[in-house]
Amino acid sequence: MAGVIKKLDKETLKQEIINNLKTLYRKDVSEATLQMVYQAVAYAVKEDVIDNWIATQKAYDKAGAKKVYYLSMEFLVGRALGNTMLALKEEDVIREAVEELGFDLTEIEDEERDPALGNGGLGRLAACFLDSLSTLNYPAYGCGIRYHYGMFRQKIENGYQKEIPDDWLKNGYPFEIKRDEYACEVKFGGYVATRMENGNPHFYQKNYQSVRAVPYDLPIVGYGNHIVNTLRIWDAEAITSFRLDSFDRGDYQRAVEEQNLARTISEVLYPNDNHYSGKELRLKQQYFFISASLQTAIKKFLQSHDNIRELPNYVVFQMNDTHPTVAVPELMRILMDEQGLGWEEAWAITSKACAYTNHTIMTEALEKWPIELFSRLLPRIYQIVEEINRRFLLEIEHKFPGDQARKDRMAIIHDGQVRMAFMACAASFSINGVAKIHTEILEKQTLRDFYELSPEKFNNKTNGITQRRFLLHANPLLADWITERIGDKWITDLSEVKKLGVYVDDKKSRQEYMNIKYKNKVRLANYILEHNGIVVDPRSIFDVQVKRLHEYKRQLMNILHVMYLYNKIKDNPDMPFYPHTFIFGAKAAAGYHRAKLTIKLINAVADVINNDASINGKIKVVFIEDYCVSSAEIIFAAADVSEQISTASKEASGTSNMKFMLNGAPTLGTMDGANIEIVKEVGEENAFIFGMSAEEVIQLEQNGGYNPMHIFNADQEIRRVLMQLINGFYSPDDPERFRDIYNSLLTGSNGDRPDVYFILKDFRAYAEAHERVDKAYADEENWAKMCMRNTAAAGPFSSDRTIEEYVRDIWHLKKVEVKL
Ligand code: NBY
């Protein structure tokens, strides 16, 4: 492949694409498939990236700069080619080159498989953070797992979700680089042995199984600043070659077991969102990538420092939820068993280097590992956790003498389980929630005891999103329109968009803005036609709810409301009703039956309504198959209404709410998560808020819930909708199909109380909020103003703002400049 190109010029670029086709595939342009051209273009772009990458790492070494290691089981990065071209400001020249070779750049971009190494919000947040870190010139590593199969691809068959393996590496992933030279060993099982060294006991593992952790590096390209940070994802290989000279070379049985261990560890992402499943393999995955990441971080640190006690001045480990929390005992192990420190010194370092972000208050998402499993898999780590716990309980006793109940509530090891969130809290110097209300709930309820013990550790960091992917890349028409008016500074400083405020009162600007929205709706309508075979009218209101399917997010309330509207229109065919397209996109965890049944319900309702000619297309219901980062980019740009309707207190923050807002869709939502902050910025008159408050929800929960039968009996329209769940209206072939959903709302099931997410309780308020939306939409001029005000108020929801706050309050990094 061609040598170093500083700034791509079109002719060189064309030549390079042609060369790449030749060396990669032995093809010339006329024979190449779109996939081949994509690969050839990606390799050409990668060359430029590499120059910046090398320069960045040199600059970091020279500056001796402090780094953040963002430890996360998930990075939902989305496609790289488009984003990279934009960051390098090479999109135009590449488009021209590709066109002159006879291809369309959008089609080429569509050839890239979405790396889907995450479930939803938490994984996407990690990807936005890396994007911001690079763009803001901060030294950072993402550390994760190279799952061979990412988030499953969703097919809808006969209305049901079917999971298809996501074989994203099938054609090779051009942006990754295997770094075999940094491979290391991770040990599982066996037992802990002791020997005396210089009069002190030294602990080491015996009879263990090993895997070889091999890193693959992905470039995270900053916008226009030559910074390229690294996302390092670890793959597992069998260790056999490491072992050739070891005493147990002949241990055939172990060799086979190690082969199996290596094969399974990095095979597949667990597709659960906000749900803990307690699988042994998951704990192996956690320890695998944490041990490899920490070993490497320490080794790198020691290359340029000789005093390990300095570590917290140069390195900070941010734990993305509890999934990476074995980092705490693993760091202790490395410091004590490999660096020879005593407990106190090791603890002083660990507790200054680790910080923890909580993403949920849902109890079913809290990780608690049975000690039998934990100690069998990680015997040395378990010993260390026991000692952390013992000392932690002493600390509590010291501060709250005699308060045994408090110690029971806070113990890290309790009732035969290791409580990971508690270990994270005990060890971290910082504990943060992801929106103001969420952090408050952590302090007052979920982690109250920990707040009382160490209030200074707690802080809030409201989430954010990157405007580079979710506006510049996803909505080029609006991005250009904004740049024409206020310049392009918003790309790296989103607070600039408030300058758009002056255009709100300009009629021509409003028309242009809404015209862009219309074009984006046409783009989505085409996507829906192509992928779903459903014709939707781009002039209808696009009312959108896209996110993981979970009961607390209340997609069920949304579809029940559609059923309710349909009944109304059927009863009153002449009632004024502006046409609506209700758009859903959601994956359900593979074992989450009620969530999957809800998908079936949405599709069943869609079937009936979309095929009822008598309502003249006044309602269309669309379930977009395989919602993922790349379809999301098309969807946000086209939305009129953003459905953010979680039961108040349950959604820690939400981030799609911010993506919709930035693209000019007002929020129809509850006072939950970051919705509260969105409404504060944009003004209540530019959003549609309804329903119970978090306080009311928590109150009612503490009183043992409520009886939805009263609502069912008193409200005939709600009653009718619920009856349609069990009278075969939407399931004539099996009237019992939706019984479980009906029961969950009215009688409770599986030992749960009825309607734990207060769907019936909030239903009327929700329906009434929809009426406000329809009324507002009818006033075209004012609607345009509302949309524009949403874009103009989105400044604080950039992940750049979030990252600056993490840097200021937790990480204390310094910016590094890279000059080529
Ligand atoms: O994190 C989400 C929150 O629900 C959302 O409100 C917030 O905006 C976002 C970013 O802070 N949480 C989330 O996505 N969680 C998971 O995906 C997840 C995945 C796996 C497990 C737990 C949670 N697990 O225990 O296996």
TrEMBL record:
One of its GO terms (cellular component) is cytoplasm. The keyword Oxidoreductase does not apply. It comes from the Bacteria. Allosteric enzyme that catalyzes the rate-limiting step in glycogen catabolism, the phosphorolytic cleavage of glycogen to produce glucose-1-phosphate, and plays a central role in maintaining cellular and organismal glucose homeostasis. PANTHER family: GLYCOGEN PHOSPHORYLASE, GLYCOGEN PHOSPHORYLASE, LIVER FORM. NCBIfam families: P_ylase. Keywords: Carbohydrate metabolism, Glycosyltransferase, Pyridoxal phosphate, Transferase. It holds the Pfam family Phosphorylase. This is Alpha-1,4 glucan phosphorylase. The keyword Transferase applies. It is an enzyme of class 2 (transferase). It catalyses: [(1->4)-alpha-D-glucosyl](n) + phosphate = [(1->4)-alpha-D-glucosyl](n-1) + alpha-D-glucose 1-phosphate. Belongs to the glycogen phosphorylase family. GO terms for biological process: glycogen catabolic process. Its EC number is 2.4.1.1. One of its GO terms (molecular function) is pyridoxal phosphate binding. It comes from Stomatobaculum longum. The modification N6-(pyridoxal phosphate)lysine is found at residue 659. Its cofactor is pyridoxal 5'-phosphate.
